[in-house]
């Protein structure tokens, strides 16, 4: 499928005096898996609803394959939608739930049978075609909802937190399944989540929203490795932000000059982004960007130990010690020398460029 290009231009939407979307522009490539990621209330669902046609923006335009969609009603937008709560018809069996969009489109019954079977095959639910949806597990219901959303081969698939009602194992399994399904079917997909791990796992690109604005739009790797501001950095992973001081041409933390692979922006107020898994804490003392950490406690977690450390400036961070690491487990009260490579040492400002 080569169509399904979405172009959102200067879209704003207010509820009373509150700006839920504030001049948002975004181009989504045909076949792309794009995730809208942000904290609660950042405008993700509102933006998805604008694309779906459930919400009319106050200003701006929405082009799908070059055609203006803003005034077009939802049922004429050729969209597949999957919500958190499945929204299946409880009185119908699996087959009839999936057949519903085709019946609406007056597809012939022989073609309906064939297409429903194919869609159920894709989500591995063909064997439960006659089952009532009330007799399905959460993961099975979500698969039926997905089959119903793709059965009419929409140009665009919109999903709003579709996995958030599932338990952790099933959620992780469905993330991989959804990603594979997308790669196979190739339809443009816009996915809403507030779960950063989910966004990083599934997406071609991630748009991070804050207060109705997109603050960064990039690949998962760039968002994680090169966040463009303090907000994005602290939203990703288990991150600590250490304030650094301008010193000469560079910056220092706790009296030590930082060696950086990427030159920082010129802003006076900068933070060093510290991700626990990027911190080295054993080996040579002459490493770059050393930080002293006082071990506060060591907690057994089964597959590893979690070591809580106090850094200069009273910042706390937890690092992991796994049994395969051949150095001894530190003890509370001990001082560890932690270090960061210049590549892993990223400075950010409060707001992005
Ligand atoms: P969540 O992750 O909690 O679903 P979200 O990022 O999807 O959040 P939205 O649902 O888009 O956020 O809402 C953005 C803001 O707009 C919120 O502050 C919300 O209260 C407000 N809002 C959304 N819809 C309406 C409405 N119909 N009337 C008034 N305010 C609304």
What is the top-level CATH class of the largest domain? Alpha Beta
Number of domains: 2
Biggest beta-sheet profile: 6 strands, mixed
Strand order of the largest sheet: 6-7-8-3-9-10
- Into which percent range does the helicity of residues fall? 10-25%
| Cα-atom radius of gyration | 24 Å
**Low-confidence parts:** none
| H and E order | EEEHEEEHHHEHEHEEHHEEEEEEEEE
Average pLDDT over all residues: 90
Verbal overview:
This protein has two domains: 6-225, Rossmann fold, CATH 3.40.50.300; 242-349, RNA polymerase II/Efflux pump adaptor protein, barrel-sandwich hybrid domain (OB fold (Dihydrolipoamide Acetyltransferase, E2P)), CATH 2.40.50. It is built from eight helices and 19 strands. Strands 6-7-8-3-9-10 form a six-stranded mixed beta sheet, sandwiched between helices. It has helices at residues 44-52, 94-104, 109-122, 138-150, 168-185, 196-202, 220-225, 230-235; strands at residues 6-15, 18-28, 33-37, 59-64, 67-68, 79-83, 156-160, 188-193, 205-210, 213-218, 240-247, 250-253, 256-257, 270-274, 290-300, 305-311, 315-321, 335-339, 346-348. The mean pLDDT is 90. Helix 2 crosses helix 3 (109-122) and helix 3 packs across helix 4. Bound molecules: adenosine-5'-triphosphate. Residues 15, 20, 38, 40-46, 194 line the site of adenosine-5'-triphosphate.
């Amino acid at each position: 499928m080569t169509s399904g290009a979405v172009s959102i231009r200067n879209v704003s939407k207010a509820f009373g005096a509150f700006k839920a979307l504030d001049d948002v522009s975004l181009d989504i490539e045909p076949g792309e898996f794009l995730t809208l990621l942000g904290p609660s209330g950042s405008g993700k669902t509102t933006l998805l609803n604008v694309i779906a046609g459930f919400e009319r923006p106050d200003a701006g335009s929405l082009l799908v394959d070059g055609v203006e969609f803003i005034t077009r009603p939802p049922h004429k937008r050729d969209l597949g939608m999957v919500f958190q709560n499945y929204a299946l018809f409880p009185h119908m069996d699996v087959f009839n739930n999936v057949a519903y969009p085709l019946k609406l489109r007056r597809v012939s019954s022989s073609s309906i049978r064939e297409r429903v079977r194919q869609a159920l095959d894709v989500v591995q639910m063909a064997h439960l075609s006659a089952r009532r949806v009330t007799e399905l597990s959460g993961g099975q219901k979500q698969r039926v909802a997905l089959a119903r959303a793709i059965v009419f081969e929409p140009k665009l698939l919109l999903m709003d937190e579709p996995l958030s009602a599932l338990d952790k194992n099933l959620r992780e399994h469905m993330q991989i399944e959804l990603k594979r399904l997308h790669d196979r079917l190739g339809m443009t997909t816009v996915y809403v989540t507030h779960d950063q791990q989910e966004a990083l796992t599934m997406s071609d690109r991630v748009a991070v929203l804050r207060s109705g604005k997109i603050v960064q739009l990039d690949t998962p790797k760039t968002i994680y490795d090169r966040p463009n501001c303090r907000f994005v950095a602290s939203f990703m992973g288990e991150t600590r932000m250490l304030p650094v001081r301008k010193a000469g041409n560079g910056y220092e933390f706790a009296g030590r000059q930082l060696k950086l692979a990427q030159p920082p922006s010129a802003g006076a107020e900068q933070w060093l982004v510290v991700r626990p898994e990027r911190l080295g804490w054993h080996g040579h003392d002459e490493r770059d960007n050393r930080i002293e950490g006082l071990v506060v406690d060591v907690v057994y977690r089964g597959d590893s130990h979690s070591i809580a450390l106090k850094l200069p400036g009273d910042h706390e961070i937890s690092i992991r010690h796994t049994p395969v690491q051949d150095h001894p487990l530190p003890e509370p009260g001990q001082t560890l020398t932690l270090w960061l490579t210049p590549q892993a040492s990223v400075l950010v400002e409060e707001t992005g460029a």
